[in-house]
Amino acid sequence: MQIGPVTLANPFILAPLAGLTNWPFRCLAKEAGAGLTVSEMVSATALAHRGRATLKLLETDGGLERPFCVQLFGKDPDHLARAAEVAVEAGAHIIDLNLGCPARKVVGSGHGAALLRDLPLVRRLVAALVRAVKVPVTVKTRPGLGPGPDQAIWELLPILEGEGVAALTLHPRLASDGFAGEADWSLVARVAERASIPVIGSGDIVTADQALDRLRHYGAAGVMIGRGARGRPWIFRQCLARWRGWPEPEITLDERLRVAERHARLLFESVGPKAPFMLRTVLMWYTRGLTGAAEFRARLCREENLETQLALLAECVEGHRRALSCGR
Ligand SMILES: Cc1cc2nc3c(=O)[nH]c(=O)nc-3n(C[C@H](O)[C@H](O)[C@H](O)COP(=O)(O)O)c2cc1C
């Protein structure tokens, strides 16, 4: 798949997830074969001023993470332009503008999906980004702010096409719906049919079969996987296998344990012991569905030390293995 001059090796993309898709998570998705990884959303204003904590969000394993997209949120054309320059300096190959975030704090300050109320401003924001950088500029959005039959997407699309946006990602739920109900993939199909730029669909993909179905039947040039990749970065390997017509690889317990440990160690390297909550959350993801996971979680919460946490995880996996062999 093509995003302007940038070629993706495949159409399976790791979605931006605020607070989660830091470089360790992205690195594992990339190792599993994701065609593109996207940073979590980064404040254009903070980045334009080169805030240290914000610059940290741009950290990447430059060699592996290629192509890499940085997503910005902002409502000031100058800040967005300056932030995009900083992101490109830091290694971004694509710049994405967030027009979809429904979080109250974000919308309340006029960012994210709130911008769908002011399409003339969106035009200025996109034009400023396209002027500022040589890399392709993309947009990720919801179809409208809602509630009600809000169809900002139909007015937005020609604006993006006219200003030189290279691709559009659509999460087909109104912002006012948050994550309720099901993503309306028929809307992705209708937008893709009308669009002259590639349309990427995002929403509710948790298996390789679903990813393939969305690609084949809804006109999407690419699909993003977000929540379905938490604690399951190998979903990209499974998507690739199905895409190539191979059987879907089974993920063994040993592999689950190895990937979980690697994720935790990379995260520890990135954030250090100051973020025990983040480490615990990540380890919990990998125990979903295992026998004894609830007990593991309770014990994990009492532990601060990474090595002890990893030993508990290995114990939990062993317990599950034993339960499986007893049940046989
Ligand atoms: C915890 C969380 C954080 C998210 N952060 C972002 C973000 O920073 N930028 C963005 O465009 N979308 C963000 N999203 C939306 C996802 O990228 C994606 O479009 C949405 O979750 C639907 O896809 P999924 O069902 O595969 O998760 C976030 C979603 C979640 C659940």
Give a verbal description of the structure:
The protein has helices spanning 23-31, 44-48, 52-56, 77-89, 104-108, 119-132, 152-163, 185-194, 208-217, 235-243, 253-271, 276-285, 293-300, 306-327; strands at 2-3, 6-7, 12-14, 36-38, 42-43, 68-73, 94-99, 137-141, 167-170, 199-202, 222-225. Strand 3, helix 1 and strand 4 form a beta-alpha-beta unit. The chain folds into two domains: 2-243, TIM Barrel (Alpha-Beta Barrel), CATH 3.20.20.70; 253-327, Non-ribosomal Peptide Synthetase Peptidyl Carrier Protein, Chain A, CATH 1.10.1200. The protein has 328 residues and is α/β, with parallel strands linked by helices. It is globular. Helix 1 packs antiparallel against helix 11. Bound molecules: flavin mononucleotide.
Lateral arrangement of strands in the main beta sheet: 3-4-6-7-8-9-10-11
Total beta strands: 11
Mean pLDDT, all residues? 95
Number of domains: 2
Distance between the termini: 44 Å
Helical amount: 40-55%
Topology:
Elements: E1 2-3, E2 6-7, E3 12-14, H1 23-31, E4 36-38, E5 42-43, H2 44-48, H3 52-56, E6 68-73, H4 77-89, E7 94-99, H5 104-108, H6 119-132, E8 137-141, H7 152-163, E9 167-170, H8 185-194, E10 199-202, H9 208-217, E11 222-225, H10 235-243, H11 253-271, H12 276-285, H13 293-300, H14 306-327
Parallel strand pairs: 3-4, 3-11, 4-6, 5-6, 6-7, 7-8, 8-9, 9-10, 10-11
Antiparallel strand pairs: 1-2
Bound molecules: flavin mononucleotide (FMN).
